[in-house]
């Protein structure tokens, strides 16, 4: 009980809660303190105090990489806190608390998957095209950006064309359109961009399974034209490995928690 109280106290501050939520969105990434402070617009000394409180409550881990301190969410402890609250809340009243361990059958039209990044000009567009090719009728792929660019990146489109992908429907879209009442209901939302995962966006309708597959931004690659094309090809290959593994999952036999576990496990695979 004392641990639960410490965790609730740690999360009972709006900025500490925002910090913990950010680390949960970035899981399984270990995020540098400087990036956390920048994303939350918090001074370094204030951030250090917040991180210390969350660490003492057992909700986050700290690791050192060179001269940098990296922080990550402790999902097992967070899960224990949620389980405690659900058990104390429900007390067997299944009509008041959703059962996360119930298998969810495949939707009649297949699963809807949204790949999310900031500009929706390269990584998320590539993921959308790859899933369409790999998954057949089981999935419908979408992509969007939190701050979409005007046009898709030409190197990304060229790479997809040369790989045999149909790029006629690929263009940047605003993520807000997928929160509209008449938008397709998403079953999975996967961010492939750290900046997009850092943003505290409104909750998605129907609460789809969410995961973060952080990929380096090939648009930022420097060097010769060949080196820049190689950066896009490497991101495409990393996305393809993960998406193939995702498409092969027996989702119809898995409950929501198991689906979340599998997507988080894929995020830990080398990109």
Name the features.
271 residues; Arc Repressor Mutant, subunit A; Rossmann fold; 2 domains; 7 strands; 45% helix; Helix-turn-helix domain-containing protein
Describe the fold and architecture.
The chain is an alpha/beta fold. It has two domains: 2-90, Winged helix-like DNA-binding domain superfamily/Winged helix DNA-binding domain (Arc Repressor Mutant, subunit A, Orthogonal Bundle), CATH 1.10.10.10; 111-268, Rossmann fold, CATH 3.40.50. 45% of the residues lie in helices and 13% in strands. It has ten helices and seven strands. It has helices at 2-11, 14-26, 33-40, 44-56, 75-90, 123-135, 154-162, 194-198, 225-247, 256-268; strands at 31-32, 60-65, 68-73, 111-117, 139-145, 188-191, 209-212. Strands 5-4-6-7 form a four-stranded parallel sheet. Strands 1-3-2 form a three-stranded antiparallel sheet. α2 (14-26) crosses α4 and α6 (123-135) crosses α9. It is globular and about 60 Å long. The N and C termini lie far apart (40 Å). The relative contact order is 0.13.
